[in-house]
Amino acid sequence: xxxxxxxxxxxxxxxxxxxxxxxxxxxxxxxxxxxxxxxxxxxxxxxxxxxxxxxxxxxxxxxxxxxxxxxxxxxxxxxxxxxxxxxxxxxxxxxxxxxxxxxxxxxxxxxxxxxxxxxxxxxxxxxxxxxxxxxxxxxxxxxxxxxxxxxxxxxxxxxxxxxxxxxxxxxxxxxxxxxxxxxxxxxxxxxxxxxxxxxxxxxxxxxxxxxxxxxxxxxxxxxxxxxxxxxxxxxxxxxxxxxxxxxxxxxxxxxxxxxxxxxxxxxxxxxxxxxxxxx
Length: 279
Hints:
Pfam families: Acetyltransf_1. There is one protein chain. By secondary structure, this protein is α+β, with helices and mostly antiparallel strands. It folds into two domains: 1-44; 51-266, 3-Layer(aba) Sandwich (Aminopeptidase), CATH 3.40.630. It contains eleven helices and seven strands. The chain has a seven-stranded mixed sheet, sandwiched between helices. A hairpin with a 7-residue loop joins strand 2 (109-113) and strand 3. Helix 7 (135-142) packs antiparallel against helix 8.
């Protein structure tokens, strides 16, 4: 255990010593002591340390990023889970192709933990792509030749919803910055990494002159993160209302995830984001 983790563990033990014997004796002095300890833990957490670096993802990182996704996003994402698309650590050829396409656009960002000398572990990634007006219709047509029924089930819902609720027509834009996948390693969750990845994606979109960003947020946690970064809900698809001709729910997503949200964020070209550095 490194010194930082040991420090946090000792501080948490100290909080327990304060809370348990004196849970009904909250003097002003004890409350002040408790607040100081909580503040110390917040600013000693791994997410706030100097070991986390944020970098642009290039094609040379593709294998490492896909491996991260196999052990996190592929099995954990609500729609993937509901469709039984893949298990933790397993591969999914069509989903990996979808990810590789986003990486090829060179708009994606990763969080890398470099605390161990000579090693760089991916703590999280956000895969972003460039979306043109005809891309979604073409992707829907391409699904007809897909050999993976689970993959088709997921992306047919996403593509049809985007075609029905057309952001291109509504905002009169020729291209959009598409936030496609947001994933954080399970051992790093709860540390603000996903939020930081979205912030940096906004900076990348602004730097490259995009007027509009979009995201298909399929889970409650990603929806909260996007909204906290200024994204607004354009339309929603409740999972319980996405049914086949017999009224059976096609994607029985587990609670607390109850709907997919199509979110957008308009970007002002002259606005500066001093908090997000992309390099």
